[in-house]
């Protein structure tokens, strides 16, 4: 009788699926039923595999998913480690807010890590970035400025069987960070294009790496974020401080534009909400309503 086991898909290799079970990694093929049902297992999926009498392994069932994010996709993402560079590419609150809004929409928690801070020679410039990030701490995000501190904290932060994935603009240092956190990951890295101030994509496939009691993924799927599926009327709710303040707005459906007695606008005027957050909110509204990509992403 064929044996069945459950595990997590940790990699896709030329039509094969590598599944981490409690005891080992098993290379499997997916049954034809998935193709017939237009289903495709993704890295991160909890799956059931079956080993037949000849010792051949087959992926036979995808267990219920928490989510499926990105392209190529990662399933069951519980947390995002968002890598934002201080320089090369330059620090950008527009990109930071874009990522945070997208993952808030996906209902995935985010921890922020500032990379390449050691490359900033101007201490005033670094202090300005750190002051900006202190605002994000105040509204509830965990922010790390030091990879050693992040490494130590991950032991407690990354819970059993959780899947964390790296995200951030190309060239921000995601693969470099992964190599630091997971010495045997051996992810390739590439130099920055000085002409474009952008990084080159070095990650081509999605793969999960075991880390502490869970997994960490490096993926090319989270370097560019599409906000077009977000409903315009829901956008404000994905800005955490806007959502909290909105309960005190006069109108329940307040979009924080020109409505009277808007609590978000009041806090903005009193500088309790950072001006760039509101400006980026307006820019995202324009992008979603007009269906256009912002210039800095083209």
UniProtKB/TrEMBL annotation:
Keywords: Cytoplasm, GTP-binding, Hydrolase, Metal-binding, Nucleotide-binding, Ribosome biogenesis, RNA-binding, rRNA-binding, Zinc. GO terms for biological process: ribosomal small subunit biogenesis. It holds the Pfam family RsgA_N. Zn(2+) binds at residues 249, 254, 256, 262. InterPro entries: G_CP_dom, NA-bd_OB-fold, P-loop_NTPase, Ribosome_biogen_GTPase_RsgA, RsgA_GTPase_dom, RsgA_N. Gene3D superfamilies: Nucleic acid-binding proteins, P-loop containing nucleotide triphosphate hydrolases, Probable gtpase engc, domain 3. Residues 75-223 form the EngC GTPase domain. It is found in: Cytoplasm. It is an enzyme of class 3 (hydrolase). Monomer. Associates with 30S ribosomal subunit, binds 16S rRNA. PANTHER family: SMALL RIBOSOMAL SUBUNIT BIOGENESIS GTPASE RSGA (PTHR32120), SMALL RIBOSOMAL SUBUNIT BIOGENESIS GTPASE RSGA 1, MITOCHONDRIAL-RELATED (PTHR32120:SF11). Belongs to the TRAFAC class YlqF/YawG GTPase family. RsgA subfamily. One of several proteins that assist in the late maturation steps of the functional core of the 30S ribosomal subunit. Helps release RbfA from mature subunits. May play a role in the assembly of ribosomal proteins into the subunit. Circularly permuted GTPase that catalyzes slow GTP hydrolysis, GTPase activity is stimulated by the 30S ribosomal subunit. This is Small ribosomal subunit biogenesis GTPase RsgA.
